[in-house]
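Researcher: Next entry in the queue.
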Amino acid sequence: MHSTRRLNHIALILLSLVALLSIACDGSKPEADRPVQLALNWFPEAEHGGYYAAQVHGDYSRSGVEIEILGGGPDAPVVKRVASGEVEFGLTNADGVITARAAGAPVVAVFAPYQINPRCIVVHEHSGIQQISDIENLTLALSQRPAFSHSLRHRYSFPGVTIVPYHGSVAPFVDDPAYAVQGYVFSEPVLARRLGATPRALLVAETGFNPYASVLITSEARLASEPQIVAAVVTAAQRGWIRYLEDSHRTNQHIHSLNPEMDVEILEIGAEMSRELVLVGEGMPITQIGDMSLDRWQLLIEQMEQAQIVKPGQVSAPTCFTTTYLPISGASGGGS
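Model: Structure for this entry, 336 residues:
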């Protein structure tokens, strides 16, 4: 999947970013009198690697904060906990921010490592299914929460498909040749292959629905009351992601200790695949990991309006995110 040229290019980017961030993070530190909490949207996996790397390597402490990372699971109420102030930070995807704001929850994205969403639909290779639009005559396990599953069902007819809830296990897929399941490209397909299946992963992003993933969110109230804490956590998270993509082994050992189902070999595969999803484009400039653009947010809102997930005009793109707290430059916009 990765050419030598591509990997060398990524290595140069990572080294340059490390040098830049070592300069950018020498500023004043906040005075945090308590640990802050970060709620994950799933069980600890590679998708959270950079956030854990920042903890393992002490980047949060060096930025002036202590952080507690809380594991999640299927349908973890991350947005609700962040919006209510129960936890200071959480992880969701960009579409989760939009649905939350449509429901009146004032959460804001402040950092987005995955530029290409790792969400996929996993089918059996022998099914002959080559793309998501080909899916028919099987059982498909999908989350019942918006928005990617709603977007797919709005766009494709899925003839003969029975949709059932996804509960976080690949066992039904392994046992049933007429079964498909949602997943992340470096998680469910890898686990299924380990268990003897022959999975094919179909990226949802290739359909054009590509929300930023593993997005760090906080509340509008937190942005107003503790901007230095937000800046410190974002700075540390960015450094953590740089570390994770450069050398993930120590962090993956820690993640494995928290989630034994994910052994270090699987996590290393996830870290390797994440490089292509976080750092995209052969000619990408030396810029910050975690950046976001107004155009991407606006497109996602339009897609969700078309799928009738949110009402037209219900959510304004500039209110969904801010790049102000990125340590190199917050040049892309965001209104909160």
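Model: The domain at 4-115+211-319 is CATH 3.40.190.10 (D-Maltodextrin-Binding Protein; domain 2).
Researcher: Noted, moving on.
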